[in-house]
Amino acid sequence: MKHLALTGSLLIVLLLELVGDFQANDKKVFEIIGFERFESMTLERSEKLRVYNFWATWCAPCIKEMPYFEQIQEEDKDIEVIFISMDDGRKPERVTNFIEKRNIKSPVYLLNDVDYNKWIDKVSKDWSGAIPGTLFIKPDGVRSFFEGEVTYEELKSMISQLK
Length: 163
Hints:
Layout: H1 2-26, E1 30-33, H2 35-43, E2 49-55, H3 60-75, E3 79-85, H4 92-102, E4 108-111, H5 116-123, E5 133-137, E6 143-147, H6 152-162
Parallel strand pairs: 1-4, 2-3, 3-4
Antiparallel strand pairs: 2-5, 5-6
């Protein structure tokens, strides 16, 4: 009987570990990166149109447009949306809380490089550094940049022009 109880306990522990792993994999996490890592991400080859949206938890226009990016990605599997947070890297819990509260499904990276003048022009010569801002990279590597808030219709139109 003790053997059966131990086996039952072991089974419960194993099931709890499996459920925990499933929840951890299902839960949205993000990574804090420097500009070099971001730049290497943009240089990777992809068959999809990559859409890098620069935003912050304190930026109302950014928050307003985020669901449009998620919706576009859901509708078109040839698009990859990546959110790049410009929040303070010393307080990553703000981003974590935001992701969880808003149920953001796209990958989120917190760009922890405060020397903006060094890298903004590398993202795009057309970018003043204001957010929201969106970098589009076509599968052939051609880039285009849009600074400012977009509506769902504007985003859809930009993407159709890039495809």
